[in-house]
Amino acid sequence: xxxxxxxxxxxxxxxxxxxxxxxxxxxxxxxxxxxxxxxxxxxxxxxxxxxxxxxxxxxxxxxxxxxxxxxxxxxxxxxxxxxxxxxxxxxxxxxxxxxxxxxxxxxxxxxxxxxxxxxxxxxxxxxxxxxxxxxxxxxxxxxxxxxxxxxxxxxxxxxxxxxxxxxxxxxxxxxxxxxxxxxxxxxxxxxxxxxxxxxxxxxxxxxxxxxxxxxxxxxxxxxxxxxxxxxxxxxxxxxxxxxxxxxx
Amino acid sequence: xxxxxxxxxxxxxxxxxxxxxxxxxxxxxxxxxxxxxxxxxxxxxxxxxxxxxxxxxxxxxxxxxxxxxxxxxxxxxxxxxxxxxxxxxxxxxxxxxxxxxxxxxxxxxxxxxxxxxxxxxxxxxxxxxxxxxxxxxxxxxxxxxxxxxxxxxxxxxxxxxxxxxxxxxxxxxxxxxxxxxxxxxxxxxxxxxxxxxxxxxxxxxxxxxxxxxxxxxxxxxxxxxxxxxxxxxxxxxxxxxxxxxxxxxxxxxxxxxxxxxxxxxxxxxxxxxxxxxxxxxxxxxxxxxxxxxxxxxxxxxxxxxxxxxxxxxxxxxxxxxxxxxxxxxxxxxxxxxxxxxxxxxxxxxxxxxxxxxxxxxxxxxxxxxxxxxxxxxxxxxxxxxxxxxxxxxxxxx
Lengths: 248, 397
Prior knowledge:
The complex is a heterodimer. By secondary structure, chain A is of the alpha/beta class.
């Protein structure tokens, strides 16, 4: 099941959804300069599940911010959906619009808007993208149905369980049929059982909708079945970890 | 989807409490506006509603309201003899604090020539004007007397024969109209102890002058003066008479000071009312500033409470317009609802204020515009904070 159209994607030709090449990020100058990312390169294909592991301060958040197009790298190349977004400088693309149309976000703390119910939390992402309110409500309900949360459509976030909140957050991430989902510690606030269910859902989405999922996590137990696992240490991708070995 | 309204719906109780708080503050501003206008309105009411062309007072004095003016009652005849004067009437005004209608209260007695003289009550809402030389009164309803009531002033009882409404002196005290001799008696007649002191002093003076004690006692009644003092003479000019000419004649030949009604108004507005007006104006200004600062703080707090949601909205691609609209709309809802609440509160309470409250529609509209525009400008603090919030704030625990 895929919701909506993806205008920038040509699925006939399997191109990298995300292509990162030689990305560096340096904070500060001179003697105080800290290199948070060192020549990071990787590619993610449609439907691929990628995990980014690493200890605190390894550069995971900085990398996530760079590929979220929130933080400008110091140098390198970032391509998404075949479009050059950053090539040693922003290429002039409207990054906010690009993010809106192509990237879905899932957060550690769910970050649902507390004064909107489950349906409206998904609907707002659609309305922000120019979908009319009526159509947005319809699509939001379809997504809630897909996430098996139809019965909680009018519930406010405060009345939802942690797992339900994260599923609504996934619904919001899926609202505009993004080609990429960036998940920042999506299971950190959940117990193992709920966390596993959320990760199963992300895997299902990747398989069914050919959406690339990039997950930053500390918990190696949650990435069973991921296609690619990268390990970041001191700002560098040190090795591709063998998924079977990582949880074996 | 209107995010601002959704947020308000989610926190109705908090918003209502905020609106009540800000609304009461705005109500105070509106009441202060009304008191400011009421102060001016009261200040000149008696001047505007005394149908006279000229106010003749003791030389060099600033009129019967701003400053005490004492003139002999016979001055009236002298003024009446000036060419161009159609009518000249004696006038007395003074404020007393007496026990009337069951309570101690402050009111102003107006004494006038009840037989066709100037300075009497303009519009009587119940009863009739004073028709007898003594012991009748016309009272403002605020004093609490009713038609036919009798009350004691000094040594006599007076009967209320007429009632007026909203007739006040410059301080907002209600008026009580009496005939000139009655007013003079209430004002100038001394109490027993004062009389004794006066008589003793007169007796001692006569004895020092060489009279015996019994001779002095016999002469005392001859020395006792009447209460023929008035505060002003009101003048109505003959048709075609030149005001300037009459004024000059009175000032030159009778050695009095003369003011037109317009000059009396100016004396009042520039003198007695000026400082009070300035104080009230300053209070109004301070209250408006305080209200706007509070609105700004409230909008800022409302924004800070939502800052993570705002960061999330920005991260998922919301334009600045969406964020600005969220904050601005809440500011508008807060300001408009608070003002509406304030307006309703004022409409239901202003009649009960001890001072006259005059609500001018254009001033209410101006206040609304000041609050509305000020509220929007105040919300800039929240808007700037929201727009500066990085979307990255949404990431991480």
